[in-house]
Amino acid sequence: YLAVGHIPGKLSSPCMELNYLSIRINFNDKDENLAALCLLRSSPNLQELEILALPEEDMSPERVKNIWLEDYHNCPFNQLRLVQVADIVGVRCEMNVIYFLLANSPVLERMTVRPAFNNMRCELLEELVVFPRASARAEIIFLDP
C-alpha cells in the first residue's frame, strides 16, 4: 500500500519494535523501490532482512535510477546482522540494493544471495566480492537457485 501515491522518505513514526522484515519487490518499479527504502529507513532496530525479487519479463536495467545510492550515507543499519536476497538476476538496481546494505550495516554477519538462475552465480560473485563493507566480519554466501 505504500507504493501507491506519495511515498515519504521515512514513516512519520519509526518502527521501533520491528526486528525482522521480509519484502517482495519488483526492482523495475520505482515506487516499490521507494516504498522499500522508506520501510528500511524507518526500521532502526532491524536485525534480519529478507528480500525476494519479483521476476518481471522486462528486466531493463535503466528503468529505476540509482535511488538506493543517492543518499545512502544517511541510513545506517546499526542492528542488521543477517540479510537474505533471493531470485535476483544481476541487474544494476538489484546490485545497488546489495551495495547499499553492505555499505550501511556495520554489524552485518552474513548476507546470503540466491540468484534466480545458476549461470548468474559467477558473475554476481565477481562483482559482490569487491563491494566495500561497513562490517569487516560480513560474509557473502551464495546458494544455488
Automatic annotation (TrEMBL):
Name this protein carries in UniProt: F-box/FBD/LRR-repeat protein
Domain FBD: from-to ranges: 38-143
